[in-house]
Design goal:
The protein contains 13 helices and two strands. The protein is mostly helical and about 325 residues long. It has a domain of about 220 residues. Helix 1 runs antiparallel to helix 11 and helix 6 packs across helix 7. The longest helix is centred in the middle third of the chain and has 28 residues.
């Protein structure tokens, strides 16, 4: 029924959907502002999701799971950096290769270790606990305050708060810190940056490592918070949606975060629309509803790509002048 369509529920779901995209998109911001195309976000998310779920199940401690996910994602980022920076390989092809390898390898390992058809066991109580605001019970009798502080702002896990706390931090790092200045210089004109004494290769390595850490949070959030288990290809294209948000935000942190929230909103809207009968329309077919985030992606890319300005050295290997 149409009465089951609640806008407040969509807003809460948006907050819970956004961290997956925020972490991955910010990882892409660091990599691509340094001049390296990061098409491997999907693969790093998937690898860290499997590792985080497996380690959390083994230790019954989600923090160990996150740490393991960080290690794996950073190893992939280092391999990616070696191919893109040292070997000057094709960044697009290698990114696709990582995505394909992660999709197959995580499934094989999950089947080998758990024998559950390529998924991990449920994590149960090993998942991150929800954080409630102090004195939450005192305003539970007031519906508006209970919704605002108990559901919209409160009642989330630590990774949700970390994702939103990183928005101003990363904005400051990219635009106002010394590292951010070097990062942007390397991405725009690596030869001028090299002439100014900036180590181009080292800056790009650091950018990809930071991106590896951030991308691991996205994978860990998928496995430990959203699902409570690992499932084959559970990233479900979120890495590519994060890249779309990155282009939508013109490679700038605040605008990229707005793009992530937009996609998170439409993902929440998609779930809320399933089974709802709209006046004069009736129920919309489920397959059409599931297409909604991707239709929005196509529209955004068609409308924004022509206006977005990528870093000038993006995807171009740096060869030091003699």
């Amino acid at each position: 029924m149409f009465e089951d369509f609640h806008f407040s529920t969509i807003l809460i779901a948006t907050i819970r959907n956004a961290p997956v995209l925020l972490f991955a998109a910010f990882a892409g911001v660091f990599a691509e502002r340094s001049g390296v195309i990061d098409l491997a976000l999907e693969g790093k998310m998937l690898a860290s999701a499997f590792t985080a779920a497996a380690c959390t199940y083994a230790t019954q401690n989600p923090y160990w799971g996150v740490a393991a996910g960080i290690a794996v994602s950073c190893l992939i980022a280092l391999l990616q950096a070696y191919v893109a920076i040292n070997q000057r390989g094709n960044q697009l092809v290698f990114g696709i290769a990582i995505n394909i390898a992660a999709s197959g390898l995580t499934f094989v390992l999950a089947q080998y270790f758990f024998q559950l058809g390529g998924r991990s066991p449920d994590l149960g109580a090993a998942r991150f606990a929800l954080i409630e605001f102090p004195f939450a019970e005192s305003w539970s009798s007031i519906p508006a305050l209970n919704w605002l502080f108990g559901q919209f702002l409160g009642g989330h896990t630590i990774l949700v708060y970390l994702a939103f706390a990183l928005i101003p931090v990363i904005h400051w790092v990219i635009n106002h810190s010394r590292f951010g200045l070097r990062l942007r210089a390397v991405g725009e004109n690596p030869h001028a940056a090299d002439a100014a004494g900036i180590n181009v290769a080292q800056t790009r390595y650091m950018a990809l490592l930071v991106g590896g850490v951030l991308c691991s949070f996205s994978g860990a959030y998928l496995a430990i918070v959203q699902s409570g288990f690992f499932l084959r290809d559970m990233s479900a294209g979120n890495g590519f949606l994060a890249l779309t948000a990155l282009v939508f935000g013109n490679w700038r942190p605040l605008q990229t975060a707005a793009g992530c929230l937009m996609f998170g909103f439409f993902a929440a809207l998609q779930i809320q629309m399933e089974g709802v009968a709209f006046p004069g329309i009736g129920q919309i077919p489920g397959s059409l509803i599931q297409m909604l985030p991707y239709i929005v992606t196509v529209i955004v890319l068609a409308g924004v790509m022509a206006k977005s300005v990528a870093p000038k050295a993006l995807g171009t290997p740096f060869v030091k002048s003699r």
